[in-house]
Design goal:
mainly alpha
C-alpha cells in the first residue's frame, strides 16, 4: 500500500509521510488527530487536517479506516480467520467491525473478502484520486443572476467533482 500511495503522491511532505507510514505500520489507528498533531509539532488537529488536505490525502480517521479494513482482508486471506475472530482478538465488537467494512467499502464483509485485498487497495486509490480532485477543483463559468439586475453576469465559481 505504501508503494501505491507514494506513486500516487510522490511529492508528499515529511509530516504527511510520517503519518501515512505510522498508520500503515500499526495497521490502523495511531491515536486522536489532536495527539498526532502534537507529536508532529503542529498546533492542533485543524492544522493536521489542512496538511493532509494540501497533500491530497483523506482525513486521518478516513485513512485509518481504509488501512484497518485492508489489514483485516489481508489477514483473513493469509491466516484463514474470520472477521469475528479478529474483532475479538483486537478487543473490538464484531458488529462494529462489520459496519466499518460496509461504511468504508460500500459492500458487506463476505463480498469484500471474496474480492480480496487487491480490490480494497484499488478502491482506496480511487478515493485518494477523488481527494486530489477536491484539492484542485475544475473552474467553469456559470451565469450569475443578481437579484436587482435583469441581465446575467459571468462569474467564475469552482466546480466540485465528486
Amino acid at each position: 500500500m505504501l508503494v501505491a500511495i507514494r506513486s500516487a503522491r510522490p511529492r508528499m511532505t515529511l509530516h504527511a509521510r510520517a503519518v501515512i507510514e505510522a498508520i500503515l505500520l500499526s495497521k490502523g489507528p495511531i491515536g486522536s488527530a489532536e495527539r498526532v498533531a502534537r507529536i508532529l509539532g503542529l498546533k492542533n488537529r485543524f492544522r493536521l487536517a489542512r496538511l493532509l488536505l494540501r497533500e491530497g490525502l483523506p482525513p486521518l480517521h478516513r485513512f485509518t479506516e481504509w488501512v484497518t479494513v485492508l489489514s483485516w482482508v489481508a489477514a483473513a486471506e493469509r491466516e484463514q480467520v474470520s472477521l469475528c475472530w479478529m474483532a475479538f482478538r483486537s478487543r473490538r465488537h464484531p458488529s462494529a467491525c462489520y459496519r466499518l467494512v460496509k461504511k468504508v467499502t460500500g459492500h458487506g464483509w463476505e463480498e469484500v473478502q471474496v474480492k480480496g485485498p487487491a480490490w480494497v487497495l484499488r478502491q482506496f486509490l480511487k478515493e485518494l484520486h477523488a481527494w486530489d480532485r477536491r484539492r484542485h477543483p475544475i473552474k467553469v463559468r456559470v451565469p450569475h443572476q443578481h437579484p436587482h439586475h435583469r441581465g446575467a453576469t459571468s462569474r467564475v465559481r469552482p466546480l466540485r467533482v465528486s
